[in-house]
Design goal:
It contains 10 helices and 10 strands. It is an alpha+beta fold and about 300 residues long. The strands form 3 sheets. Strands 1-2-3-4 form a 4-stranded mixed sheet. A 4-stranded antiparallel sheet has the order 7-8-10-9. Helix 6 packs across helix 8 and helix 6 runs antiparallel to helix 9. The longest helix is centred in the middle third of the chain and has 39 residues. The two termini are about 35 Å apart.
């Protein structure tokens, strides 16, 4: 579903038009991964109630930040069971819950909804088989590690992490708007309230910017449709966001100079070699130029096949 500019929220009117007799569930993000934007979940809640549909909120990225935004002094948005149409939420404990990788939680409005998750086979030859999910085996050490992380940090720890992470994200977003170099070339996507800051470039190759930042040790996420880059602020990055912003200014200025040199070269004044393309520029440049994305799907599938061959 498209999340169009300038808000980069899901288009609720388009969602409403697509609902039909085959629709089983509505989904919204709090926030989404690419741009860090919280959907208009109030509007989605109203639509869910009107059409008598369940509404799931993907709160995996924001689960241990969203509940603390108001208490930490930041703007927030409705996202949880206080919206009457919300019937379930997913929360990743392994992200900002700081628990071991691979742990996650799904919450339901009531026990009747939760019961639909269970897998029960009463006629298995080995006896009655009942599991809280399709996967029967679960690592006890992972569950114990998750519990220990939650208890060790507690509400005070997560509130402090929210202040530091969201504070750094907002400071970085403000730097994008205030810096003469960055403000002249980069556009902040939407109005992020949580931990992700995404930006596009007006005249420069944003993937070349990502590659240049990678050469300086910053591994940022490249996005497509539209071409953009996002910064996911973590606790280590929160302590170093000013250095990231300074490096970004250096990189953008260098890319601007290269663009000026290429413009001179095109005018026949000097002869310059073609610009080098890094990993992100090559990958997303090729993918974006293909009118039929099924080729990209085939390549990705072949890559996964190679990974899983014995």
């Amino acid at each position: 579903m498209a999340c169009p500019a300038p808000t980069y929220q899901v288009d609720v009117r388009r969602v409403a038009r697509l609902v039909n007799a085959n629709t089983v569930l509505l989904v919204g993000s709090a926030p989404n991964f690419p741009h860090g934007i919280i959907d208009d979940l109030t509007a989605l809640s109203r639509l869910a109630l009107r059409r008598r549909l369940p509404l799931h909120v993907d709160c995996c990225l924001g689960s241990f930040l969203m509940p603390f935004l108001a208490r930490a002094g930041f703007d927030t948005a409705p996202f949880d069971f206080r919206l009457p149409g919300v019937t379930s939420l997913s929360c990743d404990t392994h992200k900002y819950g700081f628990a071991p990788k691979g742990s996650s939680v799904v919450l339901y409005r009531d026990a009747a909804l939760r019961a639909h998750q269970y897998f029960v086979s009463p006629d298995w030859a080995g006896g009655v088989y009942a599991s809280p999910s399709m996967a029967g085996s679960r690592p006890g050490a992972l569950i114990a590690g998750t519990w220990a992380s939650l208890v060790r940090l507690g509400e005070a720890g997560y509130l402090d992490a929210c202040r530091r992470i969201v504070g750094a994200a907002q400071a970085l977003a403000a730097r994008l708007a205030a810096s003469p170099v960055l403000a002249a070339e980069l556009d902040l996507l939407g109005r992020p309230l949580v931990s992700v800051v995404a930006f596009s470039a007006r005249s420069l190759d944003v993937y070349a910017i990502a590659d240049a930042m990678a050469a300086r040790g910053w591994h940022l996420n490249a996005l497509q449709d539209p071409p953009a880059v996002h910064v996911a602020v973590t606790l280590p990055l929160a302590a170093n966001w000013e250095r990231l912003a300074a490096d970004l200014e250096v990189v953008v200025e260098a890319e601007r100079e290269r663009a000026r040199e290429r413009a001179v070269d095109a005018a026949g004044v000097v002869a310059l070699p073609p610009p080098k393309k890094g990993d992100a520029a090559t990958l997303y440049g090729v993918a974006g130029s293909l009118p039929n994305k099924s080729v990209v799907v085939d390549i990705a599938t072949g890559f996964l096949d190679l990974l899983y061959k014995a």
